[in-house]
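Narrative of activities, Objective 1.

The group set out to show that a structural description can be obtained from nothing but a protein's sequence at a throughput compatible with the screening campaign. Below is one input-output pair from the validation batch, recorded exactly as produced.
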Amino acid sequence: MDAVLQTKGLLSLPLNPKTRAFQSSLGLKQRSFSTKPKIPTGLSLSSNGLQKFQGFVSKTHGFGTKERNLFICRAEAAAAAADGQPAFGETEQPKFFGIEAVTLKKIVPLGLMFFCILFNYTILRDTKDVLVVTAKGSSAEIIPFLKTWVNLPMAVGFMLLYTKLSNVLSKKALFYTVMLPFIAFFGAFGFVLYPLSNYIHPEALADSLLNTLGPRFLGPLAILRIWSFCLFYVMAELWGSVVVSVLFWGFANQITTVDEAKRFYPLFGLGANVALIFSGRTVKYFSNLRKNLGPGVDGWALSLKGMMSIVVLMGFTICFLYWWVNNYVPLPTRSKKKKEKPKMGTMESLKFLVSSRYIRDLATLVVAYGISINLVEVTWKSKLKAQFPSPNEYSSFMGDFSTATGIATFTMMLLSQVIFEKYGWGVAAKITPTVLLLTGVGFFSLILFGGPLSPAITSLGMTPLLAAVYVGALQNIFSKSAKYSLFDPCKEMAYIPLDEDTKVWTHTHNSVF
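Output recorded for this entry:
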């Protein structure tokens, strides 16, 4: 084994070696870097330049019996560590499929947590669109107003609150403090807020204001009209950014080593798309319950109760897994020594990020993608509502859409490894905007020039509206699969040269804006 002392022959040293005084006249540097080193008797140089012990040695050259034995033990420990074997005196850790049991006790619960979190996120993402887009007096055009005037302020407020709580609470208490309100809200929405929506929504006030202010204020007034649905929309958006990005990945980075992260984090990405496929089937199942119900029964309310029950159950499962790992898994120790750096407030950190050209370019990538995908999504969802006006029909289609997105992303993740290895970061980073451009042009061409294409579309057994829905769905599937498999990894790679504080600030502000 290269670069490690060979220990064979060490234990054959004489029991009573002769010792001689330590040569204090020579310093460590002179003895280590002498221009004419003397090779002691009993030593020879191996082919790789390392000294090998051969047979008996008559002199210890400055080592007493105790020191020599200590040296032997250290050499054996070094050799064992380099070979991946347990050190002298230690028992080998039990393994399962080549993975240590201690590692599995961390990775399996983390994988289950990630599955549950993303399973919930898919259900919540599909449901929030159904609630907001199909509600009476609302449409897909409400989404830009909702993201600007409701989602953004609440995201900023949460960022500030989370920063304050992180300075007061322990990590465990902070996790539960953030998770439990999400679970309580989604449970309350399915069983309390939605059944009472006809009583708590100020529809008369919204109609009166609309008549006074005019149709220009349709978007903001729609937010007032269906405020509980909009609150659900924001909480679902926060679940994706807070629970996934902040809570889960923060916990995963806390309890895993670097080697474990390199080995198992890519598997989490594949597992995420498996969750997307299964949750899409779940949404489809509950959305089709209306077909088996009698007249006069609110099928969407029943579907919503079923899906929110699963979300609550998954939420408590996440909390249980977090508790189990913290109590029954030995966690790695981290160095608590930190370099003192000046603390920066929200505005100071924002000014710092804006002053860096590198970070501005990263922010431009994220913002440009967000604007582009939203331009297509808003138009597509308005066509989707026209084709599927019923909440159950709309939700059923979104379940199929989520399943197809999961399958496409899973396939693209397998191909992304080849793309990164063969073509590099530059080509991989260009694929997502290229796909977004080509599919977006195709979708908007069908919208703008659908008239001349109507005969050809009709011959295929579709209406122009249904064709626009299918083409828009394909556009979203290809764009999102390229984003998840290529754009997001490229973005994370671009964060690598940044220092830790800058990474945290950049991630936080990108998730907000």
